[in-house]
Amino acid sequence: MKPRIKITAPNDHAVVLCSATWEDQESLRAWKNANRQYFFFKNVIERDGQHRWFEGHLRRPDDHMFMVIVEGKPIGCLAVRVLGDELDIYNVILGDERFSGKGYMTRGIRMMAKFAFDRYPRRPLRLKVLKNNPAVRWYERNGFHSIGGGDDYLELEFNGSLELPQISVLEER
């Protein structure tokens, strides 16, 4: 069974990253459906499809979906997985717009980047994002730069120019 992971930053107790659980599936599905115009897969995700995806996710040891927890409440999600020789960020969603612009997702992605680099050293951290996604500028402010793309998407890579936070990682089986 895949361990549950909890990531904290000793100097920042406001944001906690916790592995997504079965109980999080409806939030994940609702958030993805509400923002599907910004993702490659644009179909509405039904409950059964979400459950099938999560069952597969649980079987992939190097695929980490985190809930971003603020004040004890999940406000969004982000994920990182190993794809070949690189680390791939996906499903970055601010689910609760009341927390927009407060820096919580920024702290979350930097904590997750630190976790990924520590766990899987010497791999580039990349993501693909549709050009129409308003998060493109946010990624650039968070240390990512374009390394290519296609007609409707960009491929971005973390350039390492930002200092990543110290983190503590707790794994439970």
Query: In CATH, what is the class?
Result: Alpha Beta
Poorly predicted runs are none
- Please outline the major beta sheet: 9 strands, mixed
Total count of domains: 1
Measure the end-to-end span. 7 Å
H and E order: EEHHEEEHEHEEE
Supply the helix-strand structural class. Answer: alpha+beta
Mean pLDDT: 96
Per DSSP, the total helix count is 4
As a percent range, the share of strand residues is 35-45%
Shape: globular
- Number of E strands: 9
CATH architecture label: 3-Layer(aba) Sandwich
How do the strands line up in the largest sheet?
Answer: 7-8-6-5-4-3-2-1-9
Radius of gyration equals: 15 Å
The CATH topology label is Aminopeptidase
Give the full name of the CATH homologous superfamily.
Gcn5-related N-acetyltransferase (GNAT)
Helix share of residues?
Answer: 25-40%
Please sum up the structure shown.
The chain is 27% helix and 38% strand.
Secondary-structure blueprint:
Layout: E1 4-9, E2 12-19, H1 25-34, H2 47-59, E3 63-70, E4 73-83, E5 86-94, H3 104-119, E6 125-130, H4 135-141, E7 144-149, E8 153-158, E9 168-172
Parallel strand pairs: 5-6
Antiparallel strand pairs: 1-2, 1-9, 2-3, 3-4, 4-5, 6-8, 7-8
Helix pairs in contact: 1-2
